Hints:
- The chain is built from 7 helices and no strands.
- It is mainly α.
- The chain has a domain of 112 residues: Helix Hairpins, CATH 1.10.287.1080.
Amino acid sequence: MAKATKPTKVKPAGKAKKKPGIKKKIAKKKAVLPLPGGLKVKGAKLPKRIRKVEARVLEPLSVSPTGADATILDQLWQTVEQRRLAGDIASSHSARLIARGTAKVAQKFGEEAVECVIEATIGNRAATVLESADVLYHLMVVWVDAGIRPAEVWAELARRQGISGIAEKAARPQGIIRAAGTSKLP
């Protein structure tokens, strides 16, 4: 009588035999963000020229704050105003943004403010500095778009000096109620 043999299991093609104690390495794919202007990227690296620009432009500031002061805001406002007057939307981000309308100007300011808040919340100091600069730039664009001169804001800040923030806020609702002509406001 013939001896019965066990049927052999056929392994599916392409699967390796698992060895105890050895974990299979899983390659993690990095998320690739789309590049502006439809730039094509070979592999995972950005083109060298873009990496150089990013290294120079996006690097956190390493300059000492000596010599820098708030007059830069007046200069920035003047630059944005000059760009608005020139109206060259092909070469000026400020002119292009203002040409898109007040809603877009306000939206960009809001986006930059949120990015700044996020960086501050997670404690990323260097990124908070960079985002703060973006917020101030976009605030200047808002002012130019609204026809507000920095001196008007500086005068309001000077008026508030020495006034308690609590007292100043408490005084606001009455003025708003008078202006609205109703007492139904909360």
